[in-house]
Each structure stands twice: as structure tokens, then as C-alpha cells.
Amino acid sequence: MFSASFAHSNSPTSARWPGFLQRRICLGTFGSSRRSGFLRKFHTQRAWPQKQLPGGSTQGVFALTALFWFFRRSTRDSSSSSRRRTGTGFGDGTNPYRELGVSESATFEEIQEAFEKLKIKYADDFKQLSKLEVLRDKIFDDKLRRRLQGKLEGIVRESPLEKRLRKQPWWKTSWLGRQLTSPGGLLYGIFKVPEKQYLRKTSIIMAILGLLGFFIPRFATSSLPISFITSMAFLYNRGQPEVRRDEFGNVGEVRPINRPAALKTMGLVFMFGGIGFVLAFALVSWFNIEQAVAVGLVPEWLQPASVVSAFVTLGMWAACTFFQVQPSSRT
User: Could you list the residue ranges that cross the membrane (predicted)?
Assistant: First the structure.
């Protein structure tokens, strides 16, 4: 046998090989797959003409053949495992889907949305912005390549029958819900649920301006312009990155005015402020609050002007809290 002849050979050539290497080759400790490959190659090579090395031994040739097939098999295994780890078809080993924070089945809108979020987060880092653009382009190129190769599955559209059978919440089927959630609605794409910190900030400031007219009735009409400007500032600046400041806290940049966002801001504030005015006027007229104050049925601080100011401020608060007009930061 090969193992016996190799292990017990006393030739000068076999003495040059360390004992542990002889035992590994003879006992086949390269692993199950490498051992079988080595034995298969060894048995097929037994028909080769055996060259006699100095000393009259051929074990050195067999050992070199075993080492050759061992390292060749190891290289193949490592390359195949690296390809399995990559898994996305990119030769450099990177995964742009993971770095951008999306899945491989993400749609174009989801990829663009994730890109816009990270673009706002790293607005001051030009190097990171360039990297994000490269990652997005890689993902789009990969999706195009997979679609051309037939590896990208198409999206199965919902049939009209299933759409009718699927139950919808009552607030989505209402007129206001359709305007908020349906494509083509008047308010579609600009409605956004506020974060806790933003909700707390707008609620405290607008509540002070709205309730101030009850404590100081003469200030009721004067507080409306202040509420209007404050709500417009909240709504227009919502979603934008923080303004750069110098070491003294002064504003260090001047941003150009976004005309579409400014027009949407004015329209929303006027619309919701007008809704509040209509509700306040109907309430004052229905209960005849002015006459009730004159005869003493209600407290004197409940003036009609204070009620109107509070309802108009409430409408402006709703406009600046639940909407966002900046398209670059819409989520």
C-alpha cells in the first residue's frame, strides 16, 4: 500500500519530509472531500511512468502530487465560499443594499426614499453624499441587470375583485381619508404624523398664543398675526436640516426660498385657519355668546374675539403639526 511504503521508507528522499506531513498524507487527514479527491487523483495517476529520484525512491513524487491537489482544492473552496458570502453579484465584495438600508426586493420608491433620508442625515459630509450616490447607482444597475437576465420577479398587481373584497378602515374610505391616502388627492404626500418632540414644541407655543386671548381679551385680535407667522415658520422649516451656526451661535448660512413649499405653506395655514374661523363664527352665533356675556350667563373672559382667536389658532396648529411641505425630506 501507498501509506505503508511511504511511512516505512528509509530512503534519503523520504527522510527529507517531516514526520507529521508523512502521517497526514498517509492517513488522509485533509478532510473527507479533500481525501476523496486526493485518493481519486492518486489512483488515476498510478498508471503514470514513475520517475526515479536520486536514492531510488518515488515517494517524493507522490508527496508533491498530494500537496498539489490539496492546495488546489483549498483554493477552489475558498473562492466558492467567498462567492457564496457575497451573494449579490458585486465583485468587490460590498453589499450596497445593506449599506443603504434596503432589501434586495425593495422597489424604486423605497430605494429613493432611503437615499433621501440618508442624504438629509449626511447633508454636511460631501464624501458620504458621493458614496450614497454611488451605492444608489449600483443598486439600480444591479436591478437592471437582473431584470434583463430574467432573475428579477415581477410584481403581481391586485385584481379589482380582491381590492373590493379587502376591508378598508372607515377613515380611509371617507372623503378626507381619500384626500390624504389616495394618489391624486389634494393632501396626498404632504400628510405626516408628527414626532413626540415636534408635537410637544408646536403644542406648547400655539397653546400659549391661542389661550392668551382669554386672559387678556384686548390681545385676542393681536395674537392672530403672531400665530400665523409662527405656524408658517413651523410648517416651512419642518424636515429641513439644522441651520449652520458659528461659534457665537449666529446663523451662518442663507438658504434660498423654495417657492412651491412656500406656496403650500401659505395655502395650508390659510385653509385650516379659515376652517377654525368658520367653526368659531358658527359657535358664537349659535350660542349668542356676546349677549350671554352681557347678561352675565357666561364669564366675562369668554369674549367672542377670544373664542375666534382660539379656534383660528387651533386650525393653524393642525396645519403646522400634521403636514410637511418640503419634498426633499418627506417620509
Answer: 222-239, 268-289, 301-325
d(CA 38, CA 74): 12
Per-domain residue ranges of the chain:
2-86, 95-152, 196-244+257-329
Q: How far apart are CA 126 and CA 246, in angstroms?
A: 19
Contact predicate 25/6, CB 8 Å: yes
CB 235 within 8 A of CB 319: yes
The count of C-alpha atoms lying within 13 angstroms of the C-alpha of 201, restricted to the half-sphere facing its C-beta, is 13
Q: Which amino acid is at 290?
A: E
Classify residue 154 as left (phi > 0), alpha (psi -120 to 50) or beta. Answer: beta
Give the residue among 234, 242, 240, 257 at the shortest CA–CA distance from 319: 234
Residue-wise pLDDT tens digits, 214-242: 888 888 888 899 999 999 999 998 988 77
pLDDT at 152: 66
In sequence order, the 6+-apart residues with CB closer than 8 A to the CB of 291 are none
- Give the C-alpha separation, 97 to 94, whole Å: 9
| DSSP letter string, 218-284 | GGTTTHHHHHHHHHHHHHHHTTPPPPPB-TTS-B---PPP-HHHHHHHHHHHHHHHHHHHHHHHHHH
DSSP code string of 107-119: -HHHHHHHHHHHH
CA angle 136/139/145 to nearest 5° reads 140
DSSP E strands in the chain: the ranges are none
Q: What is the DSSP letter of 156?
A: P
Assigned C-alpha cell, 250: 449666529
Greatest pairwise CA separation for the chain in angstroms: 130
Using DSSP, how many helices (H) and how many strands (E) does the chain show? 16, 0
DSSP symbol at 330: -
pLDDT in tens, 77-87: 554 444 444 44
CA proximity to 227, closest of 325, 314, 322: 314
Average pLDDT over all residues of the chain? 74
Please state, in angstroms and rounded to a whole number, the distance separating the CA atoms of residues 189 and 328. Answer: 12
> How far is C-alpha 313 from the chain's CA centre?
35
